[in-house]
Amino acid sequence: MVEDRTYTASADGSGETLNSNLGCQPKPPGKIADVVSVILPVHNGSRWIDACLSSLEQQSYTGPIELSAFDDGSTDSSWSDLQRWAGLLEARGMRVICGRSESSPGGCGFAKNRAVSQSSGAWLCFMDVDDVMAPERIERQLAAARAHPRALVGARVRREPAGSTARYISWVNGMSQEQLVLQRFRECTLVMPTWFIARYGQPALTHA
């Protein structure tokens, strides 16, 4: 099932007025146990959407997956690209929710929060539109999150083109569990687009 949601500016300029669903079925009440919601904020991401969502389509995890994408005022073809991919992913058994802001962009945090709010899974898997996931990502991170339900689970990353930020990648991929905690005052030690967490967890930091 694909659900479309469109947000427009409210009287106070907050952008929080919800237009009626565009002929789609309503979101079921409550949160769905064991569903992994992939949280995807989008702003002018048309050049990356195909690679991004192809990597979601190719996940080894065979359990229920929900894509919750929020288009934050894109002026390119991101919205129509999301609609095209919604049909493809739905055909593979995934649930897809596409939200949209038609006012000025609210920023990445706004789009992430909207995508989380409209999602329904018990597990949240964060992803940026210019990233691709390794095929085993959801399967491995879900296993780690189930074993440590209060943990904020991250992953090591690979930069393309290779070597473009070698010092940073060496640091972010090479930390011990202790360093993940101690060095968080230097910079975020778990790269945000790799986060995987129980919706109601109280996180401690760990790598999958």
Summarize the structure.
The chain is 30% helix and 24% strand. It contains 6 helices and 9 strands; from the N terminus they run E-E-E-H-E-H-E-H-E-H-E-H-H-E-E. The strands form 2 sheets. A 7-stranded mixed β-sheet has the order 2-1-5-4-3-6-8, sandwiched between helices. Strands 7-9 form a two-stranded parallel ribbon.
Write the layout of secondary structure elements.
Blueprint: E1 2-8, E2 17-18, E3 32-42, H1 46-57, E4 65-72, H2 78-91, E5 95-101, H3 108-118, E6 121-126, H4 137-147, E7 152-154, H5 166-173, H6 177-182, E8 196-198, E9 205-207
Parallel strand pairs: 1-5, 3-4, 3-6, 4-5, 7-9
Antiparallel strand pairs: 1-2, 6-8
Helix pairs in contact: 1-2
- Rg, rounded, reads 17 Å
Approximate helicity band: 25-40%
Low-confidence stretches at least 5 residues in length (pLDDT < 50)? 1-29
Distance between the termini: 31 Å
* Alpha-beta content class: alpha/beta
Largest sheet properties: 7 strands, mixed
